[in-house]
Amino acid sequence: MNNESADINTPIDELDGAVAVPLLGSMDRRRFLTVSGVGATAIAATAYIRPSMFFGQAGAAVTSSATASGNIIVNIFLRGAADGLSFLSPLNDSTYQTLRPGVAIPDASALGVNNQFGLHPGAVRIKALLDAGQAAFVPAAGSPNNNRSHFSAQSMMDKGSSSDPTLSTGWLGRYFAATSGASEDALRGVSIGNGLQPSLRGSAAIATPNLQSLLLYSAGSGASSSQVQTALRAMYPAASNELLRAQGAAATDLVAEIAPIASSAAAPTGWPTGFGSALWPIAKLISAGYPVEIATADLGGWDEHDAMGSATDPTGNQYKLVAGLDTALGAFFDYIGSAASRTTVIITTEFGRRIAINGSGGTDHGRGMVMMVLGAGVNPGVHGAWPGLTDTENGDVKVVNDFRKVYAEVLGRRMRTTNLASVFPGFDTSQSNWLGVTTV
Amino acid sequence: MGITQPDDLTAPDPSNLATAPPAVNRRSVLFGAGAAVIAATAAACAPAPAPTPAPTTTVPPTTVPPTTTSTLLPTTTTTQPGSAAGETAAQVLHIARRLSFGPTPALLGEIRAIGITAWIDQQLAWESIDNSSVDAILPSYPRSLMTATEISAGIEPWRTRQEMAAATIARAVWSKRQLHELLVDFWSNHLNIDINHDASTRHKPTDDRDIIRRYSTGKFADMLVASAKSPAMLLYLDQALSRADGGRLPIENYAREMLELHTVGVDGGYNEADVKEVAYLLSGWSVASRNDGGFQFRPQWHNMGPLATGGDVLGWRPNGLTGVAAGESLLIFLARHPKTATRLAHKLAVRFIGEHIHATDGVVTAAAQAYTANDTAIAPMVRSLLLSQEFRASAGRKMRRPVEYFAGVLRGVQLQWDPARATNVMNTAMGQLGLLGQVPLAWETPDGYPDNDARWTTAGAMVARWNLATLGSNGFGAPAPQFDTSRILGATAPSTVGEALDRAALAILGEPLEATTRAAILSASGQTNTTVWKSTSNGRAVIAYVLQTPQNQMR
User: Fold this and answer.
1) Residue B63 DSSP symbol
2) Does the structure's ipTM exceed the value 0.85?
């Protein structure tokens, strides 16, 4: 038999027979929404209409009990150490301009934030969010860990720790652990990529590169995917292994849950490529009313050791990186529409880059970076202390704003997480240690 | 995008459209496409073997190569033969599942022929096992055979990552040294080096070949010392840059991970001062260059630190040694340490027996004693575990991780190696294992891929596994003779759908389907046990279902 159509090199959505799974009347609803009387009251304000497929009953109004807040966090990690000074530049700073000839953002080109800082010219959508009161920036942010290794710095930031080598879970994984019992829905956590963002370790979040991958398909095998699903739904509850029983059932539920949108989950015409393809499934899930609480996505390519290019040249390497992120964020907020009032985006990176450019027009590993918090509930502007560019750590922006202050505040304010100490062990998560990136 | 209408329940295998007649009753012909092609393929590619008398009590031949092994077994037989040494079929299957990347009829035959203990001993003496199948594969992934210098001298050194992943998978699928491959996987993760770590990529093939593979059943002390001098490790954990001259503080990364992960463990009794002392001790252990060459000790960077003036690490003292000799002495001391013996024995027990085994269990103690009594030799420790009562009683205790599932699917469908499809195997492995999160050699942190069933058994991962099964049910599109349905369903057509399912289960799983599973497949398909298997029935759907079963998730 020679069926090249099922070769893995064929994109899944082009595989013949990749059909949407029809509704199954017998779908077990036990794992899905578990609305208690108290919870239902508490979340009435954020009730929303879900697609009708889950009850096989048109127009069923469903409220989510997944979270008391009804809010959503999208955690974006820029892998490779994104240059903070190319996001948020100090204005009227001769040190900055002198140490970065040809790379520094000219004051005249910076998009104004306040009288001290400006934004990269390519960050037009972030600037628009700022103007709408929905963008906060924390410069000189980072971790106490100072070995300047991508490897350990990313790991510690995903863990939400400064140094603990025994910690095996991520900060968002511990968020779920700290709020267990609210809902068992697998779609509370969604990690877009070829594996769970390590921040979600310790949770049952779904990791998938796209929504189509959660579609059960049967390309070329001759059985339809609805038949396959029916068979799996019958065989897995009888599995002798307990994990297989539970997760097999959860997976068949997930397939049914996702199928109504996954089969038509192509991004709209004009949707940005690149990072846009990672934000698209998140936008789709949120706008379709799925009970997502935490979504994550990674964007790599920021390790610009050479040829960063001019901040005013749209063909420059750093410009393209900033603009690529910015464009995708703009499309994301546009698409989710009214759900933007519940959605807060956190953008971080493992560390910043050296103030002075090197001999190749790039920058080497530094320390302080810029964190951004965008969207709902944001207190706009620049927060945290700014040490400037003359009081440095071996030529790097000092880290004076611990990244966990931002994480803790967003969880505390937006997700109303009360037991923050269990999410960030050994760190002072009290409100007095927050930076004010959110509104009360 | 080919969206099939919901009522089209029998989308035929597109490759069969030319020969499959139009389905009349769509619901009744679930398995309605393909058998004609199966028969045609078998006729075209190989003389159809005469129907083999179904073995009932005799041991089947084991010398027949897989390409011609008939898997035609009787539908009604629910008991497979036992071994020549008197072990039951279930015990033989347990060995095949747990000590290989997936049972095949040929492998089960090997174990039956000589018995479990003899087979384990044969596998532990892996250097004596014919390796021609792997020798034929590796040239297709040339960087797996190269040194860092050779890789750096050539083009596109980044291809090392894909080629090493593919070589690892190909060995798992096609090597006859199955237990060796499992032990290589264990030690490769125990002394983990992420191949994606920029500085380590080009050195990784050397580490894999000359250290992990070489010492996987040898003495752990030798493996540890070699690993400490491995450029891939020295670069991965920053040791290569560590200098303690001129008042500089050495980098502690390798020293800490070596103590915590490679040897005595986080509860091994060392403290932060010990970590610093070991970091000083190893200062100057470096590499000749970033992209080629080997280990180089840089005496000008070396500073014995506090150990020079009376300190100790868990009781070890340099006693006048400095430089490389001092470091080697400490590493050998740590390899021989009782905490290391127990830790390695327990970790191996979890890998081969299950997570229910505790470090204080007798089976671990016995294995640790075998390790210590043989001066850190690994083979006696592994043998002690594998011949234990706890191992024998552990059937059904371990899940397949993604690599084991992926390799198991390819072994299950008895795909044959074809150098013309080397790139397909590589891309398929990278794509599918990327989706499932276990690309070989690519775990980022020094602790290695988790060996924890719950970590790998999540809802999203189950969907990916089921889809992998569907894609793999025709050998990922491999043509005959590399993939041939008749190896699984038999050279002569089954008479009923039930018989087809039973044949596929025995070929792929090595045992009959569980009753509920079997009924679920038939019911969902609108078939019964006695539905007549037609020339248009679709063998691929049968194979896909068997690959998706709970039974096929276990090892």
Assistant:
1) -
2) no
Cα(B318)–Cα(B309) distance, integer angstroms: 10
Same domain (yes/no): A317, A410: yes
Whether residue B550 and residue A13 make contact (CB cut-off 8 A), yes or no, is no
- Which one-letter DSSP state was computed for residue A80? T
- Pick among B403, B435, B485, B533 to test the A interface (most A CBs inside 10 A): B435
CB contact under 8 A, A7 and B32: no
Q: Is position A60 within any domain? A: no
User: What CATH number did the domain enclosing A148 receive?
Assistant: 3.40.720
- Asked whether B357 and B346 are in contact (CB, 8 A), the reply is yes
Q: Among candidates B19, B51, B56, B40, which has minimal Cα distance to B491?
A: B51
For residue B255, count other CB atoms closer than 10 A to its CB: 26
- Is there a domain that residue A323 lies in? yes
Query: How close does chain B come to A247, measured CA to CA in Å?
Result: 5
Q: Which H or E run contains A75?
A: strand A72-78
Helix count and strand count (H, E) for chain A: 11, 14
Count of domains observed in chain A: 2
Residues A166 and A36 in one domain: no
- Residues A160, A410: contact at Cβ < 8 Å? no
User: Which 140-159 residues of chain A touch chain B by CB within 8 A?
Assistant: 147, 149, 151-152, 155
Tell whether A278 and A400 lie within a shared domain.
Answer: yes
Q: Look up residue B29 and give its two tokens.
A: 């012909």
B contacts of A194 (beta carbons < 8 Å):
434-435, 437
Range of the domain at A245: 6-41+218-258
Q: Which of A263-267, B136-140, B300-304, B429-433 shows the lowest mean pLDDT across its residues?
A: A263-267
Contacts of A235 in chain B (CB under 8 A): 516-517, 520-521, 549-550
Q: Verify that A413 and A378 share a domain, yes or no.
A: yes
Name the nearest CA neighbour of B344 among B219, B252, B453: B219
Provide the CB-side half-sphere exposure for B193 (13 A, CA).
29
Q: What is the pLDDT of residues A328-378, one digit of tens each?
A: 999 999 999 999 999 999 999 999 999 999 877 888 889 999 999 999 999
| Judgement on whether residues A371 and A414 belong to the same structural domain of the protein | yes
In the structure, how many helices (H) and strands (E) does chain B have?
Answer: 27, 2
d(CA A78, CA A302): 7
CB contact under 8 Å between B470 and A7, yes or no, is: no
Last residue in a domain, options A258, A290, A324: A258
In a domain, A307, yes or no: yes
Contact yes or no for B306/B292 (Cβ under 8 A) = no
Q: Extract the tokens encoding A252.
A: 């068949």
Name residue A243's amino acid. L
pTM as predicted: 0.75
Whole-number Å distance between alpha carbons of A189 and A180 = 12
Residue with token string 């992960």: B261
Three-point CA angle A111, A114, A117, nearest 5°:
65
Q: Which of A9, A243, A251 sits opposite B453 (nearest CB)?
A: A243
Cα gap B395→B412, rounded to integer Å: 19
pLDDT in tens, A146-184: 767 676 788 899 999 987 767 878 999 999 988 865 566
Is the domain of A301 the same as that of A354? yes
**Tokens standing for A412?**
């505390």
One domain, residues A76 and A132: yes
Taking CA–CA distances from B41, the nearest residue in chain A reads: A1
Is A235 within the bounds of a domain?
yes
Give yes or no: residues A290 and A243 share one domain: no
Q: Which of A258, A286, A315 is the last residue of a domain?
A: A258
Q: Are B168 and B404 in contact (CB under 8 A)?
A: no
